[in-house]
Design goal:
The protein is mainly alpha-helical. The protein is about 85% helix and about 0% strand.
């Protein structure tokens, strides 16, 4: 008569549940890290998008301040 190979022992149900819980915890950790990286990426994207406008406004403000200082100096020297 033919002999059948022994089947490997089945995992205990508790072991399977523990493994599933561990995998779910790892997935939750990866999801949290992904959300954190996504928030950082959107912040960098916003800074990149509005960076030139910030530089332009700052430059215009500095130019206006220099013109006002020059006008004040000219008025002071005309007295």
């Amino acid at each position: 008569m033919a002999t059948f190979p022994e089947q490997p022992p089945l995992f205990d149900l508790r072991e399977q549940i523990a493994r599933i819980d561990k995998m779910q915890a790892e997935l939750q950790k990866l999801n949290a890290e992904t959300l954190h990286l996504k928030a950082g990426t959107s912040k960098v994207l916003q800074e990149t998008r509005f960076g030139p406008f910030t530089l332009l406004i700052t430059g215009l403000g500095a130019g206006a301040a220099l013109i006002a200082a020059g006008a004040a100096l000219a008025k002071l020297l005309m007295i």
